[in-house]
């Protein structure tokens, strides 16, 4: 019995072992088959744009096999096309920032080949708008919205209008140059790119939600709604900005049609043109050519009031001929490359007169800051200048006032926002301001070119310009007749100004007269008493100039 039980037990153990071995073999076979099946499945799955972004071995949390809509794996970034657009958007942002930096530098120092005859502020504004659009597209990249696409489409439409106006109006096209054209074209392209990017991201988001969750998600989280709201508000602000820029550009196109007396003459290697006009005929007295009077305006264009006084002087026979011009950036003249000093303006005037066929002798009449240019011009044409009249002139020791850093920053800030044209548009729409007002009249100070010219004067007033006028004083002929007419209001208000006016009477040893006109402002010709004083002293200066010319001929 024991032998039988033992045999049975052994047989049972052997059977169990055989059964266990079979099960183990079956298990190994199953595992091997499963591994082969997975390898076969992986071999059949071709790599696509979603490869390596999702963990395919990760079990879905839902019993239906789909991911939860809030799962981080449900993202448009799963698509290579979406990531491709984001990479290129970042690249475009880097390019735009580099261009922005170059334009910022060119306001202060013009790189070779990048000088714009206009102010350069429109180019800068277009690039700022471009960077703004790209930043909005990147910051809110994963939160596409129809409102964002609509506002960006409006921006794109107005930018296309801007591009058409710049290309269609010859004067504006010349002022903006290739830099301005490239800036507005790039801004238009980027606006269209942002629209396309937002549409592709919206499509990718919908595709991934449908594939991974079973349906497109129509709901948004509070964070997503806030993102859409902020993005929409920012782009609405961009829409208002581009509308104002379009209106200002339209005013520029309108002002470009204003006719002018005289000519624009290319100077400084044909880099820019200055406006020069001459009135009257060349006359002779006792066989000697009469001097031509040259006007140099102060803080504004010559055409506004100042030239009217000269016209009256020519009509009443005090002078037979006079010329006036606009310094670079004023009225009809282009902006010069930066930096630009008073001596460079004097050289531009000399070149313009030579190209126009104008010859001396000259009587110089300079006002305010323009008197600095007149003094430098006189020192460089000693034999041709036979008389100088300075009207409430700027002394070289006071140039630091217009060259202060605070004033320069304010001018730069006004220049940056000048393309919006708040004052110019408001004046045209509600105050009836005309083209004349904006080009050379009471509102000329609002233009980008004028602001750029003032900024250029500010940057070098206490350095280059001061050195040039100090050198001019040392060179100036002591025999040249000189008239100084000062504002009583300015001299009473500022004792230092009065002392410097007195010092300017010593520029030469032939002082004809120094008048301090009572109740006259800085622009002395704006009062009747001031104009009378200027007329009287101009007659005396002309006579003194003839005597100097005759004595020079005798010698």
TrEMBL record:
Annotated segments matching region Disordered: 1-69
Bias (Basic and acidic residues): 11-20, 39-58
Taxonomy, superkingdom: Eukaryota
Pfam families per the UniProt record, alphabetical: DUF2417
TM ranges: 87-109, 121-143, 150-172, 178-196, 225-251
Keywords assigned by UniProt, alphabetized: Membrane, Transmembrane, Transmembrane helix
Compositionally biased spans, kind Polar residues: 1-10
Biased composition (Low complexity): 21-38
Alphabetized InterPro entries for the sequence: AB_hydrolase_fold, DUF2417
Name this polypeptide is given: Mitochondrial integral membrane protein
Biological source species: Periconia digitata
């Amino acid at each position: 019995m024991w032998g039988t039980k033992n045999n049975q037990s052994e047989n049972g153990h052997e059977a169990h072992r055989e059964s266990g071995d079979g099960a183990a073999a079956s298990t190994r076979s199953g595992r091997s088959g499963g591994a082969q099946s997975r390898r076969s499945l992986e071999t059949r799955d071709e790599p696509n744009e979603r490869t390596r972004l999702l963990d395919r071995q990760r079990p879905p949390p839902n019993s239906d096999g789909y991911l939860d809509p809030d799962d981080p794996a449900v993202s448009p970034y799963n698509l290579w096309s979406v990531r491709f657009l984001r990479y290129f958007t970042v690249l475009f942002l880097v390019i735009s920032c580099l261009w922005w930096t170059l334009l910022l530098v060119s306001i202060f120092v013009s790189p070779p080949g990048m000088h714009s005859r206009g102010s350069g502020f429109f180019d800068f504004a277009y690039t700022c708008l471009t960077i703004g659009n790209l930043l909005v597209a990147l910051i809110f990249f994963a939160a596409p919205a129809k409102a964002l696409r609509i506002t960006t489409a409006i921006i794109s439409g107005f930018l296309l209008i801007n591009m058409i106006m710049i290309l269609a109006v010859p004067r504006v096209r010349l002022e903006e140059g290739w830099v301005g054209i490239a800036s507005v074209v790039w801004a238009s392209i980027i606006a269209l790119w942002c629209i396309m990017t937002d549409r592709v991201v919206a499509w990718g988001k919908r595709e991934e939600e449908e594939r991974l969750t079973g349906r497109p998600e129509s709901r948004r989280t509070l964070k997503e709604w806030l993102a859409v709201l902020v993005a929409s508000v920012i782009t609405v602000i961009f829409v208002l900005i581009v509308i104002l820029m379009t209106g200002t550009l339209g005013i520029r196109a309108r002002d470009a049609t204003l006719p002018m007396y005289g000519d624009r003459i290319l100077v400084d290697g044909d880099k820019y043109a200055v406006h020069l006009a001459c009135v009257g005929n060349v006359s002779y007295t006792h066989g000697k050519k009469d001097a031509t009077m040259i006007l140099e305006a102060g803080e504004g264009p010559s055409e506004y009031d100042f030239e009217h006084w000269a016209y009256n002087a020519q009509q009443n026979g005090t002078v037979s001929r006079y010329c006036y011009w606009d310094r670079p950036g004023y009225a009809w003249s282009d902006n010069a490359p930066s930096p630009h000093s008073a001596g460079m303006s004097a050289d531009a005037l000399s070149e313009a007169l030579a190209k126009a066929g104008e010859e001396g002798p000259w009587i110089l009449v300079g006002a305010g800051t323009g008197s600095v240019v007149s003094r430098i011009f006189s020192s460089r044409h000693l034999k041709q200048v036979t008389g100088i009249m300075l009207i409430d002139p700027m002394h070289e020791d006071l140039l630091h006032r217009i060259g202060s850093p605070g004033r320069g920053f304010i001018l730069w800030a006004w220049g940056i926002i000048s393309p919006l044209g708040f004052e110019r548009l408001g004046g045209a729409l509600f105050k009836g301001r005309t083209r004349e007002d904006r080009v050379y009249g009471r509102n000329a100070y609002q233009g980008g070119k004028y602001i750029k010219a003032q900024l250029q004067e500010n940057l070098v007033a206490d350095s280059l310009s001061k050195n040039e006028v100090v050198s001019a004083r040392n060179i100036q002929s002591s025999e040249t007749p000189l008239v100084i007419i000062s504002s009583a209001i300015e001299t009473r208000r500022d004792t230092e100004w009065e002392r410097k006016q007195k010092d300017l009477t010593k520029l030469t040893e032939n002082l004809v007269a120094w008048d301090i006109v009572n109740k006259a402002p800085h622009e002395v010709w704006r009062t009747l008493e001031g104009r009378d004083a200027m007329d009287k002293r101009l007659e005396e200066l002309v006579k003194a100039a003839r005597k100097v010319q005759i004595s020079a001929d005798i010698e």
